[in-house]
Amino acid sequence: xxxxxxxxxxxxxxxxxxxxxxxxxxxxxxxxxxxxxxxxxxxxxxxxxxxxxxxxxxxxxxxxxxxxxxxxxxxxxxxxxxxxxxxxxxxxxxxxxxxxxxxxxxxxxxxxxxxxxxxxxxxxxxxxxxxxxxxxxxxxxxxxxxxxxxxxxxxxxxxxxxxxxxxxxxxxxxxxxxxxxxxxxxxxxxxxxxxxxxxxxxxxxxxxxxxxxxxxxxxxxxxxxxxxxxxxxxxxxxxxxxxxxxxxxxxxxxxxxxxxxxxxxxxxxxxxxxxxxxxxxxxxxxxxxxxxxxxxxxxxxxxxxxxxxxxxxxxxxxxxxxxxxxxxxxxxxxxxxxxxxxxxxxxxxxxxxxxxxxxxxxxxxxxxxxxxxxxxxxxxxxxxxxxxxxxxxxxxxxxxxxxxxxxxxxxxxxxxxxxxxxxxxxxxxxxxxxxxxxxxxxxxxxxxxxxxxxxx
Length: 456
Ligand SMILES: [Zn+2]
Known about the structure:
Strand order of the largest sheet: 1-2-6-3-7-17
Strand content: 15-25%
Bound molecules: zinc ion
Low-confidence stretches: 1-6
CATH superfamily of the largest domain: Zn peptidases
Radius of gyration: 25 Å
Structural class: alpha+beta
């Protein structure tokens, strides 16, 4: 049996699901599962329980698996061990929300026509629930595919326990392919499938040249100035006008973009003007659209987040500071190795300022999947069929630690089939999601599941 011959039925199924989808989304959104805030501990448990119940009510098996932090929910819509398996990752924890800034209550979902307002509607409870409705349809039609759900509750705090959780539950999570539905399209008119992420390496450089701040009249001219020395060091590490990093060997491992990748970056419709507006920037380092897209998706960076040290109060206090600290991080791209980056960074600092201390902060590895795989082709076709527009393949500038962990532990690439739009307000006030993306999304995932059931 194929679902294509039941195209009409799918259309009806989606329409008939609307009221129930909206009431279920409200149930999830009304639970303030703010992982960042310890005051919401009980809500986290309640959210996991409600989610597991929803999976069971939909005809799947569900289990709440404890971790050292908040639990994960594993859902299972079994077909047969002989059939392929797809694992769909979403997260159901959310960012905090300040009710005084919102036009509706963030944790009391309001429906306005086709739009759903509330914290977590688009990031990522709405997309999670959308996939669940597609799984129900696939299961009811006996699609020869096992569909597993993995819903995390610590994504917004950097997935600190996720890799350990995966390692302890490898058998339960065994899969042939992975889908992540937690990304944003370029615009409503331009669906996007992500296949790459940047990594991150944090560093801290500390310089102490004495035990206390000293008087610039008495000591100035002879005493060293750590704030000045760190500023000079940073100036030698990169050209702040262009962003180009000048640490020797920094770009050696950067994977060159293929002609097809560049073509998709152009087709994505990304513009520097739109970017400036979206992020309220007065000006940018580059004005060319392709160069801009490359700089945020496919090139590594070095950024200074802050320099501390010296006197920053009102007026002038004529001291020579005795210590300073620079907080720096580098966004990494394939095939850069964080270990090598830490080494060349440290060597560079030590050569310039031998008595500076270099401390390593957190590491996230860069990630790139295969955009030419059968699963990527299936995703592209499913998105085109469901939304009537061909998607582009893009990379993401940020990092999703969970994706690299799944690749490491489960051994499979992930494909990012997100449903969120820029106007949905990811992490912002008045976050929302809508029926258009839901109904299209259910169809997209049904079509994707159908295609994947034929791959082995
Ligand atoms: Zn998210």
